[in-house]
Amino acid sequence: MEESASDASMLVIPRQPKTAARCCIAVVVVTAAWIFPAQAQEPNQAHAGHALGSVHFPVSCSAPAQREFDRALALLHHMTYPQARSAFVALTRREPDCAMAHWGVAMTLFQPLWPTRPTPADLERGGDAIEAARAAPPPRDREKHLINAAAAFFDNQGSPPYWDRIGRWEAAMYRAHEAFPEDDETTAFYALSHLAVAPANQQSRANADRAATLLLPVLERNPLHPGAMHYLVHANDTPGRERELLHLVRKYESVAPDNPHALHMPTHIYTRLGEWPSVIRGNLRAAQAALAHPAGESGEYTWDEFAHAIEYLVYAELQQGGDAAALAHLRRLQMQPNLEPSFKTAFHLSSTAARYALERGDWKAAAALPVRMPASLAWDKFPWPEAVTWFARGIGMARGGDAEGSASAISRMLQLEAAATDAGEDLFARSIRVLRLAVEGWHAQGQGHADRARDLLSRAAALEASTPKHAVTPGPTLPAEEQLGDLLMQQGQHADALAAYSRALQRYPERFNSLFGAARAALASGDPEQARSTFEHLVSMATKGPRRQAVEAWGRTAFESAVPEGVPPSASPPTPSAGQVRTH
Length: 584
Prior knowledge:
- Helix content is 65%, strand content 0%.
- It has helices spanning 5-8, 18-35, 63-77, 81-94, 99-107, 120-135, 141-154, 162-179, 184-196, 206-221, 226-236, 246-255, 260-264, 266-273, 276-291, 304-319, 323-335, 343-359, 363-367, 383-399, 403-422, 426-446, 450-465, 480-490, 494-507, 512-524, 528-541, 546-558.
- Among the domains are: 20-190, Alpha Horseshoe (Serine Threonine Protein Phosphatase 5, Tetratricopeptide repeat), CATH 1.25.40; 361-519, Serine Threonine Protein Phosphatase 5, Tetratricopeptide repeat, CATH 1.25.40.
- It is an all-alpha fold.
């Protein structure tokens, strides 16, 4: 019998032994020597054999420094921030007068599109790096523009919040691009900055479309440019753009086949398309590659890119009914030594455990998930990750009949939503609000308030539909439209439930539970042809396991005789055992 989610939720992150840490660092040195061999080539071919793509930005430094700068710049474009920082720092030590090496250090200390935020120490270090860049021998005008743009972020006058800093950086990058419209590096970084300032309170393609328009000419001039290709994938991680330029999306992983983030990024698009085998393949490679690249100044941490890949693996396996594989990935994450103590790590630890319980309908396990674990992480800085666990607990309690427990979860989520709002993190706050409204809906349903339950889950679905998906997550912890479909099935409103499941599948294709819900709702509302078609598609997609067995058992009963109209008793699925489908 499968282990329960409650067994899988104990998070153990032991300290890595020093000998093991030295071993890992040695592996990285060997790997780096293979990926970045010494080159005796012209500068514009500096990265032809580096498995990082091809980038060349002439800077006011020596020829040896130029080669190292281009390598570090390629790492920066791949958002391989810890390793890029190490490369730029090493260059500043060898050549202190290389202004752009100091700029590079500063650029690794804020990470647009990611949920990480620079600490006060990071801001001070970035400011010092900018001062060093400005104190170096006068660089060319193009370099000055980029240094000034980074300075706009790190300028502490008035102690501006993070998003004000990002806005100042984007405005300065616009000016740099206006001054050098044909420069590939300036254009790529301006496109990135424009993606970073996309509105958090609405679904909009405007910034993504503008970024893509900027990046395509760069790729025409340099088809292997890592930044242009990477940022284009981010632009396409937007509703309505997921099918745009798929050949470039699929190409990105081959441009840097040993870089964890390059291997992972195309799976953002595969997830939007419901291409689960491709999501799994890409993230298996990304997780393994991430282990070869420790994070931290001394390589003391498992880079949070590993946790990022594992989250996508867990999500994809669950959509195929691969519960055993999902649990194996979950345990692998929880037992991984010395995880980087970042927002991403906190989110993925919370989210994977929540998904494993909720997707399987194991309400008891969801209600028992531990909060703020491991205690070593700075949870006060991570309200959204903590809220994901409270969401799972609240859903589990509400659907398990614990009204007092679900009310407590709602109360805590209100506090976390307020904390995110106070921190100026509007997208985090909206994401928490979606989760809270859903828990409130199930709480109302448990209290017998059917109309209020429908209203709350409808509001959650509408808010979710208008809220951009953050790059940290493959998708909602449990789509609100899918939950609305489940609620409507409970209330006997089968046609409306089918409409809700259909909307969920439009936004999040090929989800196991939405497909099963749609099959049941179609049959219950008198459309056996659509029910059978959806059922057969789900069975063809699903991995062998308890949930597929439950679906097949339902199908054998549901379709054994033609039903002209009405709701047959067989329209309800069999009562599953622990670990199988639980939708009622």
